[in-house]
Amino acid sequence: MELHSDETLWYFFKKGEANGFSLLFKKYYPQLHVYGLKLSNNREITEDCLQNFFIQLFEEREKQNEIKNLKAYLFVSFKRRLIKQLQKKQKNIPISEAQLFKSNFTFSAEEISIHQEMHFKCTSTLAQLINNLSPRQKEVLYLKYYSEMKSSDIAEVMDMNYQSVLNVLQKALSKLRKVSENQQIKNILKKN
Question: Pfam families, from UniProt (predicted)?
Fold first, then answer.
């Protein structure tokens, strides 16, 4: 099964496809797990809550509406569930988000190092992807995002009409999205 976006992943998940659930779980469980640990500082509660969250998500999948941003939806829903679980453990003493962040949300040197390494790899990959675009697409991207020019100014610089600039920009971004999504899916499927 080839998935190109969170929308497609959500579609297959809602239909009850085993691969849809498996890919959703593999893609978001690690991220939600780390986030939960940051909030709760309690591995047992975080893992129990996260497992129950995915079980409930699966059981109620057909009731779910369309979701515009799957990642945000999962993070918000899991956070709410975890806060409720932590409040139960604290004998119903309200725990505000500020209290959670103040006491538990810390970063280790290793996390920062890993993030920097991932950022470098992403930047390197993005450079490779951009370099595979046509010269005209590369120039439009450069002028738009690195020189921060408006599309009308790019049209003047490149001696193109305004609509042509928009078309070239759209094609370049679509190509980058398609290639990067295909690469993400390949990486996910390799982990299976």
Answer: Sigma70_r2, Sigma70_r4_2
